[in-house]
User: Fold this.
Amino acid sequence: MKPNGSFAKLFSVLFALFMLAPIIVVVGVSFTPTGYLEFPPSGISLRWFREILNHPDFIAAGWVSLKLGFASACVATVLSLPAALAIGRGRFRGREALQSLFLSPLMVPTVVLGIAFLRFLTLVGLNGTFFGLMLCHAIIITPFILRLVLAAVIGLDRSVEMAATSLGASGWTVFRRITLPAIIPGVIGGWVLAFITSFDELTVTVFIVDPSTTTLPVRLFSHISQTTDPLVASISTVAILFTVVLMLFVDRLYGLDRLLIGEGKR
Amino acid sequence: MAFLELQGLTKLYNHFVAVSNFDLKVDKGSFVSLLGPSGCGKTTTLQMIAGFTEPSSGSIFLNGKDLSNIPARKRGLGIVFQSYALFMHMTVAENVAFGLEMRKIDRSERDRRVADTLELVHLAHLADRYPVAMSGGQRQRVALARALVIEPELLLLDEPLSNLDAKLREEMQLELRRIQQEAGVTTVMVTHDQSEAMALSDSVVVMENGKIRQEATPFDVYETPTSPFVSNFLGKSNNMRAELISQTPDGAIVECNGIRLESDPVSLPQGPVVVAIRPERIEIASSATDIPGRVTERVFLGSQWLLKVETGLGELLVTRRNTGHREAAPGDQVFLNWDRRHLRILPVEQKVSRT
Amino acid sequence: MTGQRSWSLSAPALALFGVLLVVPLIMTFVLSFNSFDFYEGISNDISLANYKEVLGDSYFYEIFARTFAIALATTVICAIIGVPQAYFLNRMTPFWRSVMVLVTLGPLLISVVVRTLGWAILLGNKGVINTALTDFGLIERPVKMMYTSGGIVLALVHVMIPFMVLAVWASLQRQDPATEAAAESLGAGPVVIFRRVVFPQVIPGILSGSLIVFSLSASAFATPAILGGRRIKVVSTTVYDEFMNTLNWPLGAAIAMLLLLAVLVIMVSWNRLVERRYSEVFA
Assistant:
């Protein structure tokens, strides 16, 4: 294939600039020594990062988000793994319907999911609880895990498992020693993607939190809705840094493109 | 009872007959090939022996035991899969050790047997490698070692050489035969490659449409095929429609496109038949008493020449050993003859339905 | 694997989805037919009053029209930028490609709230863009970009374009690179190759990317909420206000159900269209 010409290079540079601009601006603003938003900052100061420590509500929200992401990603993984094996392997009536159901949270507008969860949790008395929040997040992020695990399961050569069986391995041993190691990159990739999705989720969460379970995106959202100051920028910068570290880890492990396209090819 | 015995083995998928009433006896230590085109039921048969597919009816006996109610993992068979099915997350030694581990064989014994088997397949120096970093031929040997190390009563090979390139395949044929004989293990191989089947086996079972067409030594299936299908499937063959018009204890006479041909005596009723002659059995002679023809194409294959000759019988393929001279060129007039022993008279095939 | 085994493996996930997704959606559907009184709260009577109210009020028409106009504009711009970008991406050296993949897809993993905050800082009257333009003397008074549909579209393009690039790139990867060489050997120049050979083959990618971008834009919440505020309302922010501020849940549910219906209808008919048009060529 021929290399890109100068038009293509210019286009790509402008595109990259567009993609990075809002992120660069947020990070840049967070280092301002002044009390207002300025870009480029007139100096480099950690003033607004220290300021985070004076806002325990943001720190608490950050903790809730971390715990929520961790718990819901684990629940969704534990539920998705057997479901993916069944859908990827089985030839049974209702297989397509089952798959559509598990992927449906991607189809339904998030605001509809948000009010549906709100209505339900209110009626059963779980609204605003961490447990209710966690189950709702598990539903929203299941499609992300399921797609990756499904791709891994479908990409697996069945004769490898037959080989293990013929050598005397029981069903559970085959799963533990052969199947699971083969699909584990997909499972870990799915878990991380699910964690990040839960960590970033706003639209559904904003309906079903109460002050004690407010997540970081919700806290930031309600703050930004009223005012934008360097404090939200510095908190955002911390969140960006966290995501970048996770992202580089996943890119090494699984490939970011595979993770987000959800196809088992390379 | 033979060492491995299949009795009336049948597999139906809804109404499709994958394998029909399959009977086979395999002696201990011998190498049998199931040969046939894709979809002939050979892989299904192997899967039933392995225990991955349940027969619709019929039974399988190995060393006197009925395998029907024994699950795949308890059958103790060594299987080499077409894709090799190596455990990519384990080293070569770990792959080979897996079956011994499942048998709870203690570590020192396990290590010794893994080392011995890797020695047998000439891979001892690669024991700590991962399969990713290996060539197709090496992976094939790992798969073989993994199957052999458990000292199986029966070794099953599913198209074991089909993923190798042509040159490596020939090398591995010899190698596979050597390993099989050294290990002395009874072997059933599935293949669609007739030269592979002939090179490796003590006995070849030719299958078509879920049924056995012929079972014999490689030499006999090649030399005395009992049907046009078998004669065509193994090696090249010129098959022509003809009419059996007379037979005596001295020989038979058939008529093909108005030309009378003689053959050795056959036991077939008079009427339509198929006559078959191998391209390498046709001689090019100079006498005008033989069958005249005109060369239409000539292909040089290195060790031999391939000629297409248009004759009164139809177009005939003729192969000639390359003796360092140019063969007749397209357009040349030639005369063909053959020893009447080489002409096979075969019954006309009936098409069978599989549902 | 047998059917029974498959169902038992899926049972835990199925239970969660049944109880926490299917039931709540049905309950919300029912809720949209209930009535609401400011003093009495939600009552259980069933009527079409909420739908009549939404469909009979030009205020809501305007909101729905704005929402779909914003989604359409976002989709078109994403296609115009995303298609060439995916094409260039496919032709980059492996190193630059992985850099660009990171640049393109990385933002997807950063919270929309944070990304929209960035746009708010860029677009404000005293924001980065206006300040820069004023400093260079290009404008005298700041250009209004916050609280406009244009600003929302710009930020939504940023949020959605990775999906378009991914979809187009995936269809480019399925394409045989030799077809371009073949066209060139027959005398075609780069523009003709792109227009006659590459572009037709990626149309399915563009169409599926467009579908994703359109449906996500039509139901986007964070971006229009932050950049549009109370002034530029879209459907999802309207639903939010009904639920969290006005507390008229039945009316909010009716608006949400209409959004769901509209999105589903568009998705299904779009899929039909694509399948009918391209099933023969891309079997």
